[in-house]
């Protein structure tokens, strides 16, 4: 699919990997809707890329539906969905106090990262499936954002790893399911990237994490994630695949 002129949706588009992806899409000529729970930040990014900002909570169906409607009114029907919204969190199953980890904490991460991504995807796919086909019968492209934690989860990352592992496991069946509608699905599993959350860590900690990456021994750049995300859109034969983007990193237990 040629990105230029297409309407695109980016969840979590107000910061980090989502912001970088929104900017890369706009640079390539897409009409970008920045979907985020933080409307103020989304408006700032959207203003800089001539896009539209939509307040969106991916765990709330009405919120997603309203955002899709707002984006369509501004740019027309979208053919590209970049699912990048997500949250982190780490907690040991048995805490230092000897108590079991709160179930609510586990459920929250699963609800946002896995169920929220599915929620946004199903609503987008239903609308996209009604569009006229392009070359090769293609109608749309959907990206999931997993993590290397889906494969190399560390101590305390049960919820995060499970949520990202769920996205990995959902990739192929979703691609097979939507093939009849000409909609492709792929997943990127990023490693350690220089995001706002990462930059909150002390500099020595960031340097130590970067040194653990075989090559290049530095944190990933958000624009490198964005470039791969956009390549997925333009390479029509990429479908049903999970791609690690991690500099050959394999996470240690802790």
From TrEMBL:
Pfam families: adh_short
PROSITE patterns: ADH_SHORT
InterPro entries according to UniProt: NAD(P)-bd_dom_sf (IPR036291), Sc_DH/Rdtase_CS (IPR020904), SDR_fam (IPR002347)
UniProt keyword terms in alphabetical order: Oxidoreductase
GO MF term set: oxidoreductase activity
Family membership noted in the UniProt record: Belongs to the short-chain dehydrogenases/reductases (SDR) family.
PANTHER family given in the database record: 17-BETA-HYDROXYSTEROID DEHYDROGENASE 14-RELATED, SHORT-CHAIN DEHYDROGENASE/REDUCTASE
Protein name: SDR family NAD(P)-dependent oxidoreductase
Organism ancestry: Bacteria, Pseudomonadati, Pseudomonadota, Betaproteobacteria, Burkholderiales
